Amino acid sequence: MRILLFFLLITFYSSAQNIESVKMSAKPFNYEVFWGNDLSEQHYFSKRNTLYKASESDTLNYANNTFGKISSVETFNMLQTLVFYKENNAFVLLDAQLNEIKATIFSEINCEFLKPASQNELWFFDSLSQQIGLYNLNSKKLNFLSNPIKNITHSQSDYNYFYWIDTENNCNSISKFGKIINLGKVTPFEKIVFLSQSDLFYLFEDKIYYYTFENQLSTRININENLIANFFYKDGIFSIFTNYQLITYQIKK
């Protein structure tokens, strides 16, 4: 029994991640919602339903009162910022200066989630058919990829995969070819960021954790901030929005 317990302890500690965090900066930003950063480290916020793009030297803004309240903003393609308005089944694409490139209202689907993909396509989840698919921005064609899926509560994408979590905290991904993979189950969370099909970061009770599906281990990141409203991770940098401050940490894992 002692040998087995010793083996389990060795396995746990060898699997746990040693993650270092270094606080880099804390700057005041008087906005209501933080959406994320782009590749040039410009920050995207909103206040009173106006989108702002803030850099060290300039702040741009975009407002669209036609489509209602902003539901989500996807920032990782700075040349095509995607702004989704769920209540009116619409989206806009903005260029690097927040000029409107395209504005679309869906008529054939009722879009619950809308996320960027590659090759001028967008991932969507249609609440009518309960299917995941791809929308082509050029041809305006819809390509349904999945069978009906129920109880999606959270979604995210990268260029090649759409990730989602259901009400039981089961995590899944689907490729652009329609291949679905069950990634595993995650513990309760308030905000989550998928890094890949293998791992993610999540926020729970003002604490941020790194989680791997293979080992089903959570490692707390040494970030001590209160009232975290949102966080964004890109290329080793955590951006945490709390109490009208944007606080950045460098992460090494």
The N- and C-terminal alpha carbons lie at a distance of 33 Å
Oligomerization state of this entry? single chain
Contiguous uncertain segments of 5+ residues: 1-16
Element pattern in H and E: HEEEEEEEEEEEEEEEEEEEEEEEE
- Strands of the widest sheet, in order across it, are 1-24-23-22
Main sheet overview: 4 strands, antiparallel
Strand content: over 45%
The pLDDT mean sits at 91
How many DSSP helices?
1
What characteristic shape results from the CA principal axes?
globular
Class derived from helix and strand content: mainly beta
As a whole number of angstroms, the C-alpha radius of gyration is 19 Å
Indicate the percent of residues in helices: under 10%
Number of strands: 24
Quick take:
The protein is mainly β and 253 residues long. 6% of the residues lie in helices and 53% in strands.
Features:
253 residues, mainly beta, 4-stranded antiparallel sheet, 6% helix, globular
Structural write-up:
The chain is mostly beta strands and 253 residues long. It contains one helix and 24 strands. The protein has one helix at residues 2-15, and strands at 20-28, 33-37, 43-47, 50-54, 59-63, 72-74, 81-85, 90-94, 100-105, 111-116, 121-126, 131-136, 142-144, 152-157, 161-166, 170-175, 180-185, 191-194, 199-204, 207-212, 217-220, 228-234, 237-242, 245-252. Mean pLDDT is 91; it is low at 1-16.
List the helices and strands and how they pair.
Layout: H1 2-15, E1 20-28, E2 33-37, E3 43-47, E4 50-54, E5 59-63, E6 72-74, E7 81-85, E8 90-94, E9 100-105, E10 111-116, E11 121-126, E12 131-136, E13 142-144, E14 152-157, E15 161-166, E16 170-175, E17 180-185, E18 191-194, E19 199-204, E20 207-212, E21 217-220, E22 228-234, E23 237-242, E24 245-252
